[in-house]
Amino acid sequence: MQVSPNQLSAHLEKGLRSLYVLHGDEPLLVQEAADAIRARARAQGFTERTVFTVAGAHFDWAEVLASGASMGLFGDRQLVEVRIPSGKPGKEGSAALQQLAERSADSPDVLTLVSLPRLDKATKSSAWFEALEGAGVGMAFETVERAALPTWIAQRMANQGQRVEPGEAGQRCLHFFADKVEGNLLAAHQEIQKLALLYPEGELTQSQVESAVLDVARFNVFKLTEAALAGQTARVQRMLEGLQAEGVAAVLVHHTLAEDIRNLKRVKDAVLAGRPLPMALREWRIWGVKERLFERIVPGMSATTVDRLLWAAHQVDGIVKGLRQSTWPHDPWQALQRLAMMLTRQCRPR
């Protein structure tokens, strides 16, 4: 059984299930959901809590099974938490998790909470994960993307009785806030809480928000290429500066940009050879956000433009490895900025 994170409160009002599986790459959201389940469990008499963190090949799964199978020291109801940071329980763990799932329906005095990172498709299709979701409640916590971040911030502010100005001024304020905390949801949560400490409930001006919110944004190279493919010039510039400041290797940034340019070349060549665009995207494993971006970009980008981008990526490959190119900046990050902007300009919506 799957439950949306937004439905958790309503679900808990109806009563607890004996097994919950939380998975996703937003630690803040996973932690908040786990806290809500723990609070409801305590209210219903689950006063004994045991936590297991699966680490290493020699983890003792027998101890997990024994914990859930035995009554608490004083006959209390038990909360058993199993945290698997790698998302890979191994052969022994797979069998143990399936056993936990099987007996969960017959153990009303034991509540099991399994926490996992973001899972790939193969893991979600594994026998142990399907057994857990089939016997209990599964909840997936997806990344809050940049486009959804202003709304997320506004909702969190509303929960503490605060709001931004109405109209365009308020939207500018929320986008400013989102720029400062992008990629760092836990820090975003802390900055929102700070507003509640600094200002009373009610409407906040942009100057109040700007004076309070720190720049705690964190970027990764994969989001950089998505921003470039979306044609977001200012965001690409800001992300490049952030990646450089965080000490990310220029070689890694180039590799990610170049791989998307190579994929543009592959898909464009396939389309020119007569294959339908959806088929070409599947062949080269272009999924999710990038699939939608490629669907917009590829038809309107000429083969000559793609070749020019590919040659530029080849030039920058040498620069980030210490070679000089006569028509390019010698500094790797300046060269990366020029390459990223070339790609971004060609991908702007027309």
Order of secondary-structure elements: HEHEHEHEHHEHEHHEHHHHHHHH
- Binned, the helix content reads 55-70%
- Structural category is alpha/beta
Report the span from N to C terminus. 43 Å
What's the helix count? 17
Rounded average pLDDT: 91
The assigned CATH architecture of the largest domain is: 3-Layer(aba) Sandwich
Task: Kindly describe this structure.
By secondary structure, the chain is of the alpha/beta class. Helix content is 59%, strand content 10%. It is built from 17 helices and seven strands. The protein has a five-stranded parallel β-sheet, with helices on both faces. A two-stranded parallel ribbon has the order 6-7. Helix 3 (61-69) packs parallel to helix 4 (90-104) and helix 11 packs antiparallel against helix 12. The two termini are 43 Å apart. The mean pLDDT is 91.
